Amino acid sequence: MSKFFEIEKTSQSKARAGFLHTDHGDIQTPIFMPVGTVASVKTVHQRELKEDIDAQIILGNTYHLMLRPGMGIMQQAGGLHKFMNWDRPILTDSGGYQVFSLSKSRKMTEEGVKFKSHIDGSYHFISPEKSMEIQRQIGADIFMAFDECTPYPCEYNQAKLSMELTHRWLKRCVDWTKDNEELYGHKQRLFPIVQGSTYSDLRKISAEVISEAGAEGNAIGGLSVGEPEEEMYRITNEVTDILPKDKPRYLMGVGTPWNILESIGLGVDMMDCVMPTRNARNAMLFTWQGVINMKNEKWKNDFSALDEFGTSFVDRDYSKAYVRHLFVAKEYLAKQIASIHNLAFYLDLVKVAREHIVAGDFYEWKDSIIPQLKQRL
User: Fold this and answer.
1) In the 3-class helix/strand/coil scheme, how is the chain assigned residue by residue?
2) Which of 159, 312, 355, 377 could bond 344 through an S-S bridge, CB–CB 3.0 to 4.6 Å?
3) What is the pLDDT of residues 357-369, one digit of tens each?
4) Is 241 tagged catalytic?
5) Which has the closest alpha carbon to 328: 280, 360, 306, 296?
6) How far, in whole angstroms, is CA 234 from its chain's centroid?
């Protein structure tokens, strides 16, 4: 069997360039993964994802797909790849984070979580085994162990109990996965998730337990939930010191362009976030020159290209003045243009970061580019 993760180059410290080998294609790391919550990256066609944005892997969401369209439709379609006509890799989260965000309408026990649908108020139950079963039916190339994500701030004892529950649930996820074969003829790989809030001793314990599980990749969860950036970087650094060097590391739900570069510098290989598409729909563009609010008056008669350094067709085809007009007029096309731009920029960001890792000057480049990325234009 071919090796799932291969490291091509390590740059000076912890940053590394590598490859993930899946049955739906190879992924160059470090990589950013666009979020396709309900079998769709919001406002963006799959053709644009492939040809203009060059997304090498996207995410699906277990909680949302379970509720709509449901697993009956998913299995009839032959899994998520066929359902949404996407032939590249997919990662699914476990549903744990969404259930965590429904804190007012859920009841958690050792067995699992009973929760109320945000769609119609109906009650549902997810256990570690049920999460694995749903993710088998979705058919993602990489799927996540069912965990509990703690809020921020979180008291020490709550974080400890939650982490221990996540570890017990992991064993059940692993056992179910071993006993139940894949449905669609391609290999699925389970990633467990490190928890422990912002407490170093808990994170260390969790990272060790997760490492001992011997999975093909590992994730860091429970960050980017409101803690200061410095705390996120500190915990990430401590955890990547412990997680196996020869396995991919996935930092969940991160983040801004500068968060992504800092995380790569701390040894992270994979990241995802709704930020590029969510902020795009609110007229915020990320560029190599800095952050642009497209609704600002200053772009009203600026007929220059949307982004002269951009890599997608929207950057060349449309002017700042035109895209501003679309936002002011509340035209749907504005959200589509901005989403394609932001996602293409994020994929270009990790591609250039990878080039600097291979060249051996990643850290100098990162420190010089981050102040520019943070500028408000």
Assistant:
1) CCCCEEEEEEECCCEEEEEEEECCEEEEECEEECECCCCCCCCCCHHHHHHHHCCCCEEEEHHHHHHCCCHHHHHHHCCHHHHHCCCCCEEEECCHHHHHHCHHHEEECCCCEEEECCCCCCEEEECHHHHHHHHHHHCCCEEECCCCCCCCCCCHHHHHHHHHHHHHHHHHHHHHHHHCCCCCCCCCEEECEECCCCCHHHHHHHHHHHHHCCCCCEEECCCCCCCCHHHHHHHHHHHHHHCCCCCCEEECCCCCHHHHHHHHHCCCCEEECCHHHHHHHCCEEECCCCEEECCCHHHCCCCCECCCCCCCHHHHHCEHHHHHHHHHCCCHHHHHHHHHHHHHHHHHHHHHHHHHHHHCCHHHHHHHHHHHHHCEC
2) 312
3) 999 999 999 999 9
4) no
5) 296
6) 19
Catalytic residue among 93, 269, 307, 315: 93
Find the mean pLDDT for residues 316-336. Answer: 98
pLDDT at 118: 87
Sign of CA dihedral 39, 40, 46, 49: negative
**Distances in whole angstroms, Cα of residue 240 to Cα of each of 13, 111, 148, 187, 220:** 12, 30, 20, 26, 9
What mean pLDDT, rounded, does the chain reach?
96
Rounded CA separation 274/254 (Å) = 9
The pLDDT value recorded for residue 2 is 58
pLDDT greater than 80 at residue 101: no
Q: Is the pTM above the cut of 0.85? A: yes
93 is catalytic: yes
pLDDT digits (tens, 9 = 90+) for 21-76: 999 999 999 999 999 999 999 999 999 999 999 999 999 999 999 999 999 999 99
Alpha carbons 15 and 203: distance in angstroms, whole number:
21
How many Å apart are CA 256 and CA 286, to the nearest integer? Answer: 9
Least confident stretch, 101-105, 114-118, 274-278: 101-105
Neighbouring residues of 166: CB distance < 8 A, sequence distance ≥ 6: 145, 147, 148, 193, 195, 206
Active-site residue (options: 147, 269, 272, 307): 272
What is the arithmetic mean of pLDDT over 134-151?
A: 95
